Amino acid sequence: MKQCNHVTMKYTELKINKIENGISTEIIIAYLAKIGYDSFSETDAGLKAYIESEKFNENLVKEILAKVSFKYSFTEIQDQNWNAVWESNFQPVVIAGKCMVRAPFHKADDNYEMDIIIEPRMSFGTAHHETTEMMIEWMLETDLTNKTVLDMGCGTGVLAVIASKKNASEITAIDNDEWAYNNTIENIQKNNTPNIEVYQGDASLLGNKKYDIIFANINRNILLNDLPVYVKCMNENGKIFLSGFYENDIEAIEKLTNKLQLKIVSIKLKNNWASVCFFRE
């Protein structure tokens, strides 16, 4: 739950059945965040979302979930020390034995090459989700020194922060969500990575900008719509890393990338989620 200085309050837990219809979990989280939900947890059964009970409005939930045809239930949870609950449940994530992504209330660990601090406002931006984990793996495997980098759909800004830590020369982070915009700025400050420029908006902001490396962890529909814009922004011999979609979506993604003259380099898979690296000659 969100941090609240060790006070207790009532929360309502919303349970949404396992999401398997191609709609990205991040999209549902973004919808719910806009109506006041402030923390989320993915389980084998689906998604749990939490909101202060006084802010709970079932009609708003119905309106959102009717668009995507999900079944749901909700339960009011008794008073708890939510700050303590959140800290006890939220664990640091270690990627490839090299990079630890942790919250400010976790201790640093010198056993890892890279220490990233992310304020845990939403679970999908803290490297707990498979798509973020795979994107970080790509970053650890890629030389970003003196590269211009775009983090499209930046969420918490974790990828942009890592790009800065890996000596990228210029980094742009973009997200259309106001929460993500503000949280990215917060995390830039926590990690002392001032060479990141943050914008709130979509692919229309890119204009004539050019990048050596693009990371886009969004969802299938946005990727299919915006990929032509991303490709126009790629320098020759540039790479683009995509995620936020399922393994069975790769065919549709690759069909478009073939038209855009991108060549597939490699694929990562985790629990039916996919991430693909493409190269532009």
How do the helices and strands line up, and which of them pair or pack?
Blueprint: E1 8-17, H1 25-33, E2 39-43, E3 46-52, H2 58-66, E4 72-81, H3 82-89, E5 93-95, E6 99-102, E7 114-117, H4 130-141, E8 148-152, H5 158-165, E9 170-175, H6 178-191, E10 196-200, E11 211-217, H7 220-232, E12 234-246, H8 250-259, E13 262-270, E14 273-280
Parallel strand pairs: 6-7, 8-9, 8-11, 9-10, 11-12
Antiparallel strand pairs: 1-3, 1-4, 2-3, 5-6, 12-14, 13-14
Helix pairs in contact: 7-8
Please give a structural write-up.
- The chain is α/β, with parallel strands linked by helices.
- It has two domains: 80 residues, Alpha-Beta Plaits (2-Layer Sandwich), CATH 3.30.70; 160 residues, Rossmann fold (3-Layer(aba) Sandwich).
- It contains eight helices and 14 strands.
- A seven-stranded mixed β-sheet has the order 10-9-8-11-12-14-13, with helices on both faces. It has a four-stranded antiparallel β-sheet with strand order 2-3-1-4.
- Strand 11, helix 7 and strand 12 form a beta-alpha-beta unit.
- Helix 7 runs parallel beside helix 8.
- The termini are far apart.
- 41% of the residues are buried.
